[in-house]
Amino acid sequence: MEMKMFFPLLLLVCSVSTAELQVQSDNDILSHVRQTEGQVEEAESLTERQTCTQDINAVLREMTALVAALKVEVQHLQKDNEAKQLAFSASLLASGSGYTGPFNTDITLIFRNVVTNIGNAYNPNTGLFTAPVRGVYHFDFHIHGHGSTNPTSAVLVKNGEQIFTSWTHQPAGAQKASNGVSLLLEIGDVVFLRMRANSRIYDNTDNHTTFSGHLLFTM
């Protein structure tokens, strides 16, 4: 009788132990799976962060290169804009009043009283305007005199070539002559006024005799 009861009890204990072992095994497997899933998720997150960091670095490099290119372009635009700002106006005498001439040969007129010289293309020491950029420029000149045996005359010259002339002559009274021209100039071309031989030109603090020019547009 005791033996008959022992075997069922033993079977029950074994079954319980097996079930506990199975549960423990399942728990271990589940824990391992969860741990593995966590590691996979962490690895994926790390990969995403690394990819995101790489993308950000790539974008930053592109933006840095773009900013550098824009800075260069801005500098070029600033230089171009500065080159396009060209204008000057000057009268013949720096102070006082009096005549220039007559001389027995042509001379370059030097307009020393500079009112405007944006771009510094006009040189008040030589009387020469030198084109810093290729473009179309406009020049005006006015000369003043008084009646005498000598005419009042000047020529606008480009690189040694006579372009336009102003000339007036009368025996008495004040006299004035003017002219103007638009010229296509290359870089380094020189424009100035030349007084004709045996002419005389008057100026005073009222600035009657003037020379002006400015850039119309580049080409």
UniProtKB/TrEMBL annotation:
Primary location recorded for the protein, binned into one broad class: secreted
Subcellular location, record wording: Secreted
Coiled coil found in the keyword field: yes
Keywords, comma-separated and alphabetical: Coiled coil, Secreted, Signal
Pfam families given in the database record: C1q
Keyword Coiled coil: yes
GO cellular component term, pick one: extracellular region
Organism of provenance: Xiphophorus maculatus
Coiled coil: 60-87
Transmembrane annotation, as ranges: none
Entry-linked InterPro entries: C1q_dom, Cerebellin_Synaptic_Org, Tumour_necrosis_fac-like_dom
Signal peptide positions (record): 1-21
Identification of the protein by name: C1q domain-containing protein
Domain C1q: 81-219
